[in-house]
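Inputs:
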Amino acid sequence: MSPAGIVLARRPRARRFLAGPGVPPGVAAAALFLGLVAVWVVAPGLAPHDPALIRPGDAYQGPSSAHLLGTDPLGRDVLSRLIDGARTAVLAPLALAAGTIAVSTTLAVLAGYLRGWVDAVISRVVDVLYSIPALMVAIVIVGVTGGGFGLSIIVLLVFGLPANVRVLRAAVMERAALPYVEAARTLGVSTPRIMLTQLVPAIGPLVITSFFLQITFAIVDLSSLSFLGLGVPPGASDWGRMMAENRATMSANFFSTAAPGLCLAAVAVSANVLGDWLYTRYEQAGRSR
Amino acid sequence: MTSRISPTALVATGLSVRGVRGGAPVGLTSDVDIEVPAGEAVAIVGESGSGKSLTARALLSLLPRGLASSGTIRIGDRDVSLLDDAERRRLRGSELAFVMQDPFTMLNPLERCGSQVTAALRGPDGRRLRKAAARDEAVRRLAEVGIADPAVADRYPFELSGGMRQRVAIAAAIAENPAVLIADEPTTALDVTTQKEILDLLERLSRSHRMGLVLITHDLRVAFSVCTRIYVMYAGEIVEAGRPVDVRNRPRHPYTAGLLRTEPPLDRRVHRLARIPGAVPAPGARPAGCRFAPRCGWAEADCHDHHPALTVLHLDHQVRCRRADELTEQLRPSRTDEPPEPAVACAASDRALIRTRALRRTYGPRVAVAGADIEVHAGESVGLVGESGSGKTTLARMLVGLTRPSSGSVEVGGVDLASRHLSSADWAVVRSTAQMAFQDPYSTLNPHRTIGAALRDGLRLVGAEDIHRRTDELLERVGLSGDHARRMPAQLSGGERQRVAIARALARSPRVLVCDEIVSALDVSVQAHILNLLRDLQVRLGLSLVFITHDLAVARQVTDRIYVLKDGEIVEQGATGDVLDHPRHPYTQRLVASVPSPRPDPGTELERGKPA
């Protein structure tokens, strides 16, 4: 009917992200890397050498077939220390982020749905926490008490709350006025049940994003503490600590500092990419139009 | 016929829109031919998924990212397809103007109305107008759209009502005297009285400015009231086109006939609303033959195999149906074969399930409900009608305990919800007496929970024994199947969601179901299904309904008695038929008069004279 179709508008451009049902390459790479690190976590025995073995004779070596990433100033194998350090580098931020988000979600749902004095108390405490620089306090508390790794995790957890509580509380307040929550109230569903079965799933995508973002913050904060010599005990093969200990001799073996640094950055970025992707998937599953 | 006298303002030929879905190209609309005479209005009518809005956007070259259109568009004597992007952009505003549905987001909230109207205007020297000149011009333009108060030019959009905003938007759209104005559902978000004013305004402007008007709407009544030509779209193509008189009185496509029949009449209550079975097929899943065949009562084997072409019947009447000639008589809208059903006389018991006395709710200085006395008896259906802001939703929310009254009393099942101390036993009585279904099908269900989970909430509270079997029963009661329980709300259509919302309310076996505008967001064919369902439930379960609506024709179909609300006060009440046929209060009279009616046309009178 029409003459040769003349294109009037922009040609369809494939959307870079989440265009089809397939997994985008970035996400696949992130998942692959995190999988590798997970293997290191569960199987530290994969390390080719004893990570704590000091051999002054092998010190300051560059990469070789015996030591793939070279050695540090004490002659310890960098790759082995990297694999051994994955445990604290990954598990600790994971636990820290999970704790932060669990507590934040609870407080946010309580404050955002109950409002009134509960909201007032939670929000003011959060405001106060917001005004205190987290890492400073962590350095002081951990440094003065010598409390070690457990205490630094608790301090960072508390100071991780404000930003998350605020974001999640706003989301809860928005959802609380929606018909499905009102319908549950009209049905007579109890308040705790509404929180658990309506509000928590409703803010689920946001909880996931916050969790993965929090992992990134936790990785950076924890390795900052390790870098400063706080938190993990001396001698532990923690990635932050490795960077601190080896940075003076970086010219001798570049990888002794770069490898743990790059691994840290890669874990953080991977967590973010994966979190973003999961969020979009979750959000789209609930979106209708 | 008129189109031959007037020069054409816009002609689109073979306009198609394509997109990509799941990696494969998908045709969204195909071969749409539209002709808009200068100074006249044409309507593109269709339900959601028909492609009417995409067609409008294709006309404007404003398609969303990822979609492409083909075909030719001529505006006046210029071929738009030959222009580049920059030239097309210049065309918008000066030759082609656009008014959107939502007057709340169309205007910039941070800019005064006057400067938004004159933003695109340039003086004879090609420069922006000077401040004083711009304001004078704005005042003049606003007066043209019926805003006589010059102070409006200095106001911000949020200071104006929805109708005023829509007027400002229209003034801004036609500021450069375009040849064509495309209005996408311009009155859907407005009250019925405002809707009439805006439609009258659009019609007047198109005549006085010699402007072609393309009205995109889902509402056949709106289309008939202002347009001289109607294009009915279904599943991405035009299935029927013609003069309103022909389309309304002699529809030749089964879909058009179906749409006309599903439209609830205002003047009488019909025994059962006609329905169109099934749903509009999604792009990519459209049948190879006639796209309407799977839902068509007259489809033959050939209909499923061959895609029919749009054929000219006579005069300006075109239809895309193989059997158009055989079905002429069957498709004629029959006005008399169904006897109007007398509204159920209020034979309901004396005992009111819900009784309010001097019920009042204020928000600061604003009065939402100012002393309402209503009663809902067992088994009856009560309507609350009024425009937005009349307090009908606040009143309904007080009936189920979602909003606390400021003063007065609300007795629900004998429990006064206004009292300070309500025990959990009192609440249990209230919950099992009155339940509510909400307006927006997209937020009535939690997007991250399954349908079954939503229904089990209520069943658990009444201590149902076999919860899964009861879930299936509830779904079947509202016309869905048991396997809907495992689906997520996103997998359901708007109508299905409203059914689930009704089922969820029924889970507590209430005696009264409060329905807050539950069909206002649905297409007319889906609306008929839901209204029929409600009437069935009323009869089968002896359920009482409190039906909140702004649509008087809908109120006519489902309610026995109505209360008319204005500014929080009940201004008129009585049996639905009496109130709508003989409205006494001026406000009710105005509401009834505002329902769009077909344009007076000489052909109509002849038609009426013939025996049906």
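Residues 1-20 of chain A have pLDDT under 50 and may be disordered. Flag for discussion at group meeting.
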